[in-house]
Predict the 3D structure of the following.
Amino acid sequence: MTRDRKLSAILSRRTFLSGSAMAGAAASGGILHAGRAAAANPENLPPHVPEWSQYLGAGVEDAPYGSPSQYEAEVVRRNVRWLTATTESSVNFTPLHALDGIVTPNGLCFERHHAGVADIDPSDHRLMIHGLVERPLIFTMEDLKRFPRMSRFYFLECAANGGMEWRGAQLNSCQFAHGMVHCVQYSGVSLATILNHAGLKPNAKWLLPEGADASGMTRSIPIEKALEDCMIAFAMNGEALRPEQGYPLRLVVPGFEGNMWVKWLRRIEVGDMPWHTREETSKYTDLLSDGTARRFTWVMDAKSVITNPCPENPVQHKGANVLTGLAWSGRGRIARVDVSLDGGKNWVPARLEEPVLPMCLTRFYYDWQWNGESVLLESRAMDETGYVQPTIEALRNQRGTNSIYHNNRIQTWLVNPSGEVENVQVS
Ligand code: MTE
Ligand code: CO
């Protein structure tokens, strides 16, 4: 079927979301309002003096640790209740649609736990290094904080991000279809520094990091990657790691699937072969259509998503609109992001916002005029190796439909004439 016929088929069978606050909003095209003008109280608008200018605000002792404005209460991590049997072995999602720039605020980083959040007293936490090393060592947190330190921005994406969308569009939400990714600045010590301190034996080829949570998460990591750019991090975005993100210590494995970034890191064994743990045999492998499975698929392929407009962010005005999104690649820097308004027939380059860092989220913008008609919005990332983000059709041809992990398809958002936006697949 051609893309045009697909679009008309999609349009004709859609029943639009009922009760949406957006119904008819697009008709007001032309005037740009800051925020949702419909909800404004005229008493607070010029020429009146708004109520908040008429009395004293909160004092400096009222919020020792700051929180977002009460009007941002909807900007939270959310989970999908039916997705997992328990909340301890589960996931919630980053509200990508409500964020800008490239940094994810600490309280909004998606969480993926296999046995809940470990509650660790840092003075009782230890990191043990053993196996094929000259000097097996046990470090306290204080010991680790005396080594030369580094700070780097990296994205972390769960390999299962978008995993429900292999057989068709499932979740009508940017947050749920793409929100298993976050990007923060990590501070800590390079793993190479710690390994060299213990002294690697000549046959040291693999590492087995282990978490101190009840899941005892373990993965095999090749020594080349460990020495290249891995970090042992104790801070994120300037403050101590959040408990959800592995307090007091987590492994940072830039560009590799999130599962390998072991949280609550307590032990690293050095060996000469991979361990073939549960997380690299039964899980985190990709079943192909011929019945064989890909294994050790570590690198996160280049991907992008438009975060505005999206199902959570309907288009409110005809004329000028900000189209923006995020792109990332586990292979290095994003070289280019193209945007399509017609489901992938024609492409125009988006503006990449600085900084554009390797293995980090990159923000893109495209200054867009909406004429009030149906459009199929897509973004397509290319990284510095020349790798181009594939369509879902190309991905299915290569990998079948049995996979869960590593679904980096081009996302299509259908913008309806009402301004509402839907998750669709056109190829
Ligand atoms: N480490 C431990 N110890 N236990 C876990 O359950 N989950 C892994 C990884 N590290 C996990 C872990 C998975 S599958 C992912 S995607 C990332 O942590 C999620 O990191 P986040 O919770 O900071 O988003
Ligand atoms: Co994961």
